[in-house]
């Protein structure tokens, strides 16, 4: 069997490093390359600047089979390059507005897609869709999905999510109620939610993640919402005050980046998915609770590795996918369940 050549662009960043570590451990036969703007010390380090397509030649020179994008590519240069050169591609970085643009671009090029284009931008690299599928296999019975996120301010955080919040906190985004798009804002519409793993009751506020778009627009689930809380109840309520009093509007982008950009030394992350179903005879709610003891980066990276392994080991037809569409839900659940630093419960 030929060795698979995998390029992780943004491989020197927080999540990129963890992806490489997990890949190396689980798949010693993969040949891993690291793409970044700075020249590294080994032949496996490639200089790639997503804003400069002239730097992409090294991708072809090194016979890369799969590009993993873990850095912001505003103009989708890497996506266009992958489609043009029939290379497999997976992207884990896009916030909702950018994901919609990239997905539309790929769809427009669909006739030319002679590779696998996988969009894995979603909460924790798009595993929410797989977990929804696992507990409610018949989509037609699902009336509502609510995602609740516990985010620790002590967790190691990458810059991209902080920058996204800083840029978008004043702009409305879309959630869905009975298939009607609702314009909402971050840190408003508080409700109380009782988290598992001993976290207890906390106020949760609106958050924009790509799963809103994916679950409603792609999976046709009528009502979808996402809400989050910080580990610090004080910080959570402060964000709510700032939004309701329009204080974010008077802060500069730099000040907002400072506000959202703090990063700790590592802590747990927890999220819960509530799925409401209606079978005609009865309605019920099922819940998945997931805890990553090592925090967000570890869970995002591990989920990404599952997608990479699937793309390289399965005879998937060429085309455009969201990451949950390439797996059986059972596989994803079992892989998460068996991973040493992840706890998962279904009720």
Task: Describe this structure as you would to a colleague.
The protein has 347 residues and is an alpha/beta fold. The protein folds into two domains: 5-124 and 297-346, NAD(P)-binding Rossmann-like Domain (Rossmann fold, 3-Layer(aba) Sandwich), CATH 3.40.50; 128-295, Dihydrodipicolinate Reductase, domain 2, CATH 3.30.360. Helix content is 34%, strand content 27%. It is built from twelve helices and 16 strands. The protein has helices at 14-26, 57-61, 77-84, 96-108, 128-135, 159-168, 211-218, 233-244, 247-250, 253-260, 296-313, 329-338; strands spanning 5-9, 31-36, 45-47, 66-69, 88-91, 116-119, 142-151, 173-177, 180-184, 191-195, 200-206, 223-230, 269-278, 283-292, 319-322, 342-346. It has a seven-stranded parallel β-sheet with strand order 3-2-1-4-5-6-15, with helices on both faces. A hairpin with a 4-residue loop joins strand 13 (269-278) and strand 14 (283-292). Helix 1 crosses helix 11 (296-313) and helix 6 (159-168) packs across helix 10 (253-260). The radius of gyration is 20 Å and the shape is globular. The termini are far apart. The relative contact order is 0.16. This is Saccharopine dehydrogenase.
Beta-strand fraction estimate? 25-35%
Give me the CATH fold name of the largest domain. Answer: Rossmann fold
CATH 4th-level superfamily of the largest domain: NAD(P)-binding Rossmann-like Domain
CATH architectural group of the largest domain = 3-Layer(aba) Sandwich
Give the tally of structural domains: 2
Q: Which ranges are low-confidence, i.e. pLDDT below 50, for 5 or more consecutive residues?
A: none
Distance between the termini: 42 Å
- Overall outline: globular
Structural class: alpha/beta
Elements, N to C (H/E): EHEEHEHEHEHEHEEEEHEHHHEEHEHE
CATH class type of the largest domain: Alpha Beta
Question: What do the pLDDT scores average to?
Answer: 93
Read across the widest sheet, the strand sequence of neighbours is 3-2-1-4-5-6-15
Largest sheet: 7 strands, parallel
Helix segment count? 12
Helix content: 25-40%
């Amino acid at each position: 069997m030929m060795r698979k050549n995998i390029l992780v662009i943004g491989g020197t960043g927080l999540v990129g490093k963890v992806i490489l570590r997990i890949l190396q451990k689980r798949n010693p036969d993969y040949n891993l390359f690291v793409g970044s703007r700075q020249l590294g010390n080994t032949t496996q380090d490639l200089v790639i600047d997503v804003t400069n397509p002239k730097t992409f030649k090294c991708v072809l020179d090194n016979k890369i089979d799969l590009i993993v994008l873990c850095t912001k590519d505003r103009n989708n240069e890497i996506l266009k390059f992958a489609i043009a050169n029939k290379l497999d591609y997976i992207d884990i970085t896009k916030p909702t507005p950018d994901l919609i643009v990239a997905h539309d671009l790929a769809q427009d090029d669909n006739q030319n897609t002679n590779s696998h284009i996988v969009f894995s931008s979603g909460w924790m690299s798009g595993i929410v869709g797989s977990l929804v599928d696992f507990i409610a296999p018949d989509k037609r019975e699902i009336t509502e999905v609510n995602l609740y996120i516990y985010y620790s301010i002590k967790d190691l955080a990458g810059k991209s999510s902080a920058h996204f919040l800083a840029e978008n906190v004043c702009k409305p985004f879309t959630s869905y109620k009975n298939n009607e798009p609702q314009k909402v804002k971050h840190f408003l519409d508080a409700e109380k939610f009782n988290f598992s793993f001993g976290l207890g009751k906390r106020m949760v506020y609106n958050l924009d993640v790509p799963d809103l778009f994916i679950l409603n627009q792609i999976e046709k689930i009528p009502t979808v919402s996402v809400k989050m809380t910080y580990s610090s109840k004080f910080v959570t309520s402060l964000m709510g005050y700032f939004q309701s009093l329009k204080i974010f509007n008077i802060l500069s982008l730099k000040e907002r980046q400072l506000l959202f950009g703090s990063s700790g030394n590592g802590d747990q992350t927890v999220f819960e998915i509530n799925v409401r179903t209606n079978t005609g005879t009865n309605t019920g709610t099922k819940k998945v609770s997931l805890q990553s003891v090592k925090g967000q980066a570890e869970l995002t990276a591990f989920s990404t590795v599952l997608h990479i392994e699937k793309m390289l080991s399965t005879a998937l037809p060429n085309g455009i996918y969201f990451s949950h569409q390439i797996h059986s839900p059972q596989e994803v659940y079992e892989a998460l369940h068996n991973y040493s630093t992840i706890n998962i419960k279904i009720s």
